[in-house]
Amino acid sequence: MKSPAAKKLFVMMVLEFFIWGAWLPLIWDYMEMPVVDGGLGFSDTQVALVGSAFAIASILGIFFSNQFADRNFAAEKFMAFSHLVGGLAILALYWVKDFPLFFSLMLVHSLLFVPTMSVANSLAFSHLKNAQKEFGLVRMGGTFGWMFAAVPMYFILGNKAGAEAIAARDSIFLVSGIASLVLAIFSLSLPHTPPKAAAEGQSGFAWLRALKFLKKPFLLVLFVVTFIDSTIHNGYFVMAGGFLGSSTVGIEQKWIMPVMSIGQISEILTMAVLGWFLTRLGWKTTMILGILGHAARFAVFAFMPQNQTMIILVQVLHGICYAFFFATLYIFIDAAFPKDVRSSAQGLFNLLVLGIGDLAAKWIFFPLRANLTSDGVVNYHELFLWPTGMSLAAALLLFLAFSPPKELDAPAEVAH
What are the structural domains, with CATH classification, of the chain? Predict the structure, then answer.
């Protein structure tokens, strides 16, 4: 990343994912903990509603926010406004304790934050000379940001443990809110990316035109596969923490996050070499390998649940799972859709990644785990066979039915 623009885009990604990573891993225990112990004491339904805010935002973003980003706002100004207002909303959660206002503020934050993830991708693609080679390096900043978010929480929580540590987690909203305000200011220094007028003779609704592109068989197949893979990907985060800390695996609670962070470290390395692999393997093979990474990881969970060493080592596959499928997906979308609808197209697929896939993971894997639990012991072998099979099915579908046109066949030749 020699160009000043690429360096700024890298910092943008660091801050973008820092904001999200600061609160997402730690909010759940804080919401569930009784008020007398310093938590919020929300019911399961209330926790689920707060957890659905991102999904709601990803749906509404397709029709409104991404449309504005595509056709009415300069991308950097959209980023600045969204992170200013969204940052104030998440910052206010530090003081809010009652559910109606808490949920409302989280929804406001989500409605403004979720579209910025699509816009950040589009903004990056607009200013990278060779997106196939450079996007992985720029997006790598997001992985750094997610990991860096744990640093301030380490000092805030210090040596606190148990209820005291959970009660102190309201600080996640201070950290996230401040970072959002910093990105709002920084966004004004990003390369100018003007709105794109609708192509002549085309609908003024960017989201509608992006949706119509799913009539193309190769994009419809990719859309279906993305839904399956997003469900599996989100299912990992639904199930991994409890699995690693179970008596079956036996990893101490304090080591669960460090073990899972191995995946983020491998993601950094994989992002760094994504361009090399993508140029040589092409879209289909690269994305299939990303899906098969899930199959391999869940197969180890299913067949070696008591082999702690293998379970720890297999976390390195997370980098392949994310970079080879999701990062490649975003690059492909940029190449496959017209310029005037790219933010909306990114939003359309983010609807699956951040919204419907996340909800499906909760609807599928929470009930499945409950049904496979007897006397407090989970049948992890049978539980993890499900995402393993889903991964293999998605990879097979992509292999058999994903056939992009020849002008998109060779990533190295796509012009930007």
Answer: 1-195 (1.20.1250.20), 210-416 (1.20.1250.20)
Run of H or E residues at 62: helix 53-63
The pLDDT tens digits of the residues spanning 215-273 come to 999 999 999 999 999 999 989 988 887 888 888 888 876 677 678 878 888 888 898 88
Tokens 């909306």 map to which residue?
Answer: 344
Structure tokens given for 346: 């990114």
Helix (H) or strand (E) holding 373: strand 373-374
List all residues 6 or more positions away from 385 whose beta carbon is below 8 Å from its beta carbon: 298, 302
Q: How far is CA 15 from CA 92, 114, 119, 141, 145, in A?
A: 19, 14, 14, 8, 6
Distance from first CA to last CA of the chain, Å, rounded? Answer: 17
- DSSP-derived letter for residue 39 is S
Residues in Cβ contact with 393 at an 8 Å cutoff, skipping those fewer than 6 apart: 228
CA triplet 106, 111, 116: central angle to 5 degrees? 120
User: How many Cβ atoms sit within 10 Å of the Cβ of residue 96?
Assistant: 18
Sign for the pseudo-dihedral over CA of 370, 33, 236, 53: positive
> Distances in Å between the alpha carbon of 141 and those of 32, 272, 334?
32, 10, 19
Look at residue 409 in the predicted model and tell me its pLDDT: 52
The residues with which 378 forms a beta bridge, in sequence order, are 373
How many residues can be counted in the chain?
A: 416
Q: How far apart, in whole angstroms, are the C-alpha atoms of residue 49 and residue 355?
A: 13
Q: How far apart are CA 234 and CA 236, in angstroms?
A: 5
Q: What is the rounded distance in angstroms from the CA atom of residue 318 to the CA atom of residue 323?
A: 8
pLDDT value at residue 396: 98
Helix ranges restricted to H, 304-413? 308-313, 317-320, 328-336, 342-350, 357-371, 380-401
Residue with structure tokens 């699509």?
118
Percent of the chain with pLDDT over 70: 89
pLDDT at position 135 is 84
With tokens 């889903």, the residue in question is 390
The dihedral over CA atoms of 148, 149, 153, 159, expressed in degrees to the nearest 10, equals -40
CB 21 within 8 A of CB 145: yes
pLDDT under 50 in the chain at which residues? 200-201, 410-416
* Cα 114 to Cα 65: distance, rounded to the nearest angstrom: 9
CB atoms within 10 A of CB 128: 22
